[in-house]
Amino acid sequence: MYGSFGQLFIAVAGASAALTGLLFVALSVSPRRVLVSGPRVIQQVRAAAALQAFSNALVVCLFGLVPGTNVGYPATVVGAFGVVFTAAAVRSIVSSSATRREQLGQLGLVVVLLVIFGTELAGGITLLAKHTSYGAVQSISYALVASLLVGVARAWELVGERGTGILASLALLTGLAAQADVTDPGQATGSTADDAQDNAADGQSCS
User: Fold this and answer.
1) How many CB atoms sit inside 10 A of residue 19's CB?
2) How far is Cα 56 from Cα 115, in angstroms, rounded to an integer?
3) pTM of the model
4) With the C-alpha atoms ordered 70, 75, 76, 77, is the resulting torsion angle positive or negative?
C-alpha cells in the first residue's frame, strides 16, 4: 500500500474517476460546437489531452491500490504510453495546416505533458529496479497530481468555452475578450442580418 501514499492514491483515483465521468456527461449533453480555437487537429489534441490526463492518474492509482502490486509497472507502462501520445500529438500538429503561431501556442501543453509522463516513466523504472524507493513513489505521486490538474484545466477549456492559459485569463480579466466579442465584424454582420430578416418577417405578417 506504500504507507502514506496509499491515501493519496485513493484520493486521486476517486477524483480522476469522478472528473472523467463528469467530462463524458458534460460533452454528451452539450451541443456540438467548437470550444477550442484553432484548426481541428489542435482541437482534437487538446481534447484528447484531458482524457489522457484523467486516465493516466486513474489507471496508476487503481493498480497501485491492488495489494502486493509494484506501482512501478503501471507507472512505466502508462508513462511510456503518455510520452508516445505526446510525440504523436506533436507530429500531428506540425504536419497540420496550422500556422506557425498556432503551433507554437501548443508548446506549453506539450512541455507539461512531457514533464509529467517523463517523471512518471522515470519513477516507474526506478521502482522496477529497486522495488522500494520513497523518492520514486513521491515523484510518481507528484506526476499524478499534476496530471489531474492538467486534466481539469483542459476539461474547463472544453466545457467552459474559454482558454485556460495565462494570456487568455488576463484578456478575460481585463475585459479585452469581451470587447473582441462585441466588436467582431462577423458577429455584428450576422446579428444585423438576422434582425433585418426578423423585421421583414414581422412586416409581412402585419400586412
Assistant:
1) 19
2) 13
3) 0.70
4) positive
How many residues in total does the chain contain? Answer: 207
Residue 150: what are its φ and ψ, rounded to 5°?
-65, -40
- Whether the pLDDT of residue 63 is over 80: the answer is yes
3-class SS string, the chain: CCCCHHHHHHHHHHHHHHHHHHHHHHHHHCCCCCCCCCCHHHHHHHHHHHHHHHHHHHHHHHHHCCCCCCCHHHHHHHHHHHHHHHHHHHHHHHCCCCCHHHHHCCHHHHHHHHHHHHHHHHHHHHHHHHCCCHHHHHHHHHHHHHHHHHHHHHHHHHHCCCCCCHHHHHHHHHCHHHHHHHCCHHHHHHHHHHHHHHHHHHHHHHC
Per-residue pLDDT of 150-193, as tens digits, reads 988 887 777 655 554 544 544 445 555 444 444 344 444 444 44
**For residue 149, how many other CB atoms are within 10 A of its CB?**
14
Q: Taking the CB of residue 161, how many other CB atoms lie within 10 A of it?
A: 12
